[in-house]
Amino acid sequence: MPSRHIPAFDHANKPILDADAPVDATYFRLVSLAAGQVDEFLLEAFECLVVVMSGTADITVSGERFAAVGQRADIWSGNADSVYCGRNRLVAVAALTRVELAVAGCRSTADYPAFRIRPDEVDCVDVGSNETKSRRRIFHILGRNGAGRSGNLLVSELYCDEGCWSGYPPHKHDTDREGETAHEEVYHYRFNPPGGFGAQLWFESIQGRIVESRPVMTRDGDTFCFDTGYHPTVTSPGHAEYIFTILVGKSQRPLLQHFHEDHLHLMDKIPGIAAMRDKFK
Description:
Blueprint: E1 5-6, E2 15-18, E3 26-33, E4 38-42, E5 46-61, E6 64-72, E7 81-87, E8 90-95, E9 99-107, E10 115-117, E11 123-127, E12 136-142, E13 153-160, E14 165-166, E15 171-172, E16 174-177, E17 180-192, E18 197-200, E19 203-206, E20 209-213, E21 216-219, E22 223-226, E23 233-235, E24 240-249, E25 258-259, H1 273-279
Antiparallel strand pairs: 1-22, 2-3, 3-9, 4-8, 5-6, 5-7, 5-8, 5-9, 7-10, 11-12, 12-13, 13-24, 14-23, 15-25, 16-17, 17-22, 17-24, 18-21, 18-23, 19-20
């Protein structure tokens, strides 16, 4: 099995994940452009969302132009401005300033028209508390607003307070059954300040017993991917954490999470868990 943990590297605008195991239905690419540069691509097998992480660009999808997309200096400075591009369409990104983009994709055969998701259309949910060391804010870029307008792709940005946990209580989403759906997931991490670090845990459980566990240290620019298992994550004190999150449903769009039985007592203790679950449906 290829490593689930992909340390930061100079990817030269090439895909970090291109339907690579263990997430064989997910596409992920970061693009950095100087003002005046243009990036063009066509993904035949993937619907995709272009998220402007910093800077401003014109984004054209099969001739339809979305002007001056991107209204923040960096990922810590407000909500994202994005364009859903559908599948099998020529996308051209023309940088108006220095710009960084995230391209998130989901293997799909469906065709949907392109549309823009402006910052004021991003849906936020506040989860946890600093008292329970679990406070994070999840900004759903392509969430419930994509129902009937996109396939099984969900994209969000998560901001975790320093020293806090996210993906907590531990949950999984790897089996299609009552109360749970099968979704692949990809995390891409940034820290503020960038010298910060965190830890990503991943474990399997059989009849409530942990049978495999893989903790890894996460640094600025790292990526982690998984299609099975429980996956809580934590950031170190003194460092805020950002996670760009891609979810791909294997059979449906809405996400249903299964929480580990040993930690169900935390469901009522940690504020906002019910609201978080509802936002993914």
